[in-house]
Amino acid sequence: MMHTPNPTLRVGFGVESLVALASSGGIRVYYDHLNNIQLDPAHRRTPLMDSASSEHKRKRLCSSASNTSANDPTAIEANVAIKRHPDFWFDDGSIILLASSTDAFRVHRTVLARCSEIFRDMLLVGDPGPGAESEGMIEGCPVVRLPDDVADICRLLKAIYDPLIFARDKEMTFRERLCYLRVASKYMVTAIREEVITYLRSLYPSTLEEYHAAPTFSEHSSCNVLLAVNTGITCHILDILPTAFYICCLLLPRSVLLEGEKDADGNTIHLETSSLLKCLTGMADLLESRHTFIDTDLCDLANANVCGKGNCHLAFLELVNSIHEHKYNDINIFDADGVFDGTGGIDISANGRAPANAPPEPSTDVGPIKRHSEFWFDDGSIVLLAGGTEAFRVHRTILAAHSEVFRDMLLVGDPEAADQEMVEGCPVVHLPDATDIRRLLTAIYNPLSFTQDKEMTLQLGERLCYMRVASKYMISTVREDVIAHLRSLYPSTFKDFVATLATPHTPDLWYNAFSAVQAGIKYDIPDILPAAYYACCLCPVSILVDGVRDKHGNYMCLESSSLIACFAGRSSILALRSIYLDAVFCSMANGEGDCDDEDCRLCILDLIATILSSHLLDIDIFQDPGAFAGILHFSGLCNLCTAAWEETVDTAKLVIWMRLPECFGLAVSWSKLLNKGQALEA
């Protein structure tokens, strides 16, 4: 027997919802629920009930119906008022089902009982049980009014009288099949329920072999995937949920995942809150597993240089770096055309050799090239070729001196190699992106172009591009300089942090904060994360969820794990604020301070009212004077109370700052976090 679902509660992704997420395990946000007929155990009929009892019940029903017909005029008019259904009115039917409207269905009681456990227990139908009302007799047949609408009763009867309906109707929509499942589950029509569940399992299988044979992603609409998750939970089809959740994470845009999607009828399909959290945490866990079991092994394989060939080694390094740069957060790891098995990039087999169907080795004769105006040195000893045309003639020894990757790749420049491409007597190395090569060479030949950028003309996004190239080619000096710049923007000491707060809250600031969070995670700089996360939390919740564009139109958004950290951090900071600010203010209003002036007490009450009305969910507590200290200028408090108020604000700032790493789930203290960062650098 199915249970009635919990009441529905819709929540947005404001701070209010964060509190709900933290404190409530019973919030349910979903598209529909079943109006179940629940049978009182006293009314359940089993095959063991003796025939005498059944006969007594039949006589009682007939007697009751006869009395009703004789004494109640409304029962007589029922024959006139009802609307016979054209498809389900059988002249030899033995029971009449009334919909919530006046539509009537005359069907066969034994057929209902044979297919539906609910009707089997409800019959002989003279005792309909809770949720279904007896309406007396019509044309000599007992009448039962059901709480369902006409469409659901039609589905129920189609499922009973035509169990091959799914085989006949190949074009039946996904939503319609779920409607059949809902009705079949409600009335326990086992055959139809199993039919729909089999269909769902074909779309969301539980084995990898079946997953590869399942329909392509193009056949999964956003609404269908959301409905599949909700249905798997509501109807207890647990084995479809892993695949359904995975497809949700893989296909649905962040906005759809968080806000839902409207179906063809204009109804918004939502995930339950618990399901949404499973998606977000699942994406983070999948990425962690991918980095652990795939990326790390690929890096080890690239460094091993199994075949010993320089070109193959370089190709493998480029493949790994391309995945790391462009598909770092891609969880599409199971599909044949996914990031790791797809044909869109270089393919190297597991033993380090080029695949059997690889193209022939390139000719040593390089076609027309375009010399770079800045990085073409006449005495250069190696040519870096980007995109097959743009060329950079530079010094092999200088590259090797600055880059560990080029130091290990010097064999590529061996002019004695028989298959070595040459340009003007210099060996050629193919690299994928001209812009990245320019950054690489700028960092090596002109490092002061950004280390001495005191006016901050170089934007953080561009600096992080240098960071990416420096990490890719292991240029430690450039990496260290960008890390130092990040630490100046998102410091780990309270004094330095307060000095950064003068920057106004703008989309560019939020864009930089989002970028810093991603850089701190990707490049193992944990000490910048508390301040960077805090800066993210200061932006509007809509931007925190949907992402932001800078003034150049570049888009940036947080990953799922970072979004969860921000939500948790906001809740934790609000909780600390309530303890160290709000509660202390209230105690001052209650006369627990050193001042006993009634005017001051009234002023404090007024200040608290202002905070509750204008700054109830404000976590911007570090600004000076800020929302909590700035209002004192108009308060009229005495000097003693003003000093006590300001001391309370300053104390709260220090306490929350010291616990900021803990708020975002990074470490229990700043010292632990800094030790972690030092260990990673070592």
UniProtKB/TrEMBL annotation:
Gene3D superfamilies: Potassium Channel Kv1.1, Chain A
One matching Pfam family: BTB
Region spans: Disordered: 48-68
Ranges where the BTB domain occurs: 93-123, 380-446
InterPro entries reported for this sequence: BTB/POZ_dom (IPR000210), SKP1/BTB/POZ_sf (IPR011333)
Protein name in UniProt: BTB domain-containing protein
